[in-house]
Specification:
4-stranded antiparallel beta sheet; about 45% strand
Amino acid sequence: MALQINATGINVATSGVSAGGAIPVDSGGTVPRLIRVAVTTATYVRVGTGAQTAVSTDMMVHPAESVIVPTLGRTHIAGLQVTSAGVMQVSPVEDV
């Protein structure tokens, strides 16, 4: 079954300094069980509760892939560039 994305996500500009924000809510207004993370350049990604700071030992996402991440009640996400600035796009996935 295809992913169901029915609500808008967020874009986070990544650079040499960690940046992030709140995980976008799903169409029901709640933090989704899953999020889809896509990037334009290789990015270190961290998901947690409250403001987060991504570091170079966090999960690396490459631009040729996207990852589906369970939120597990966590509310925030952060990204850090690997070698060049880019954009991390985070979309809430509806229950499927």
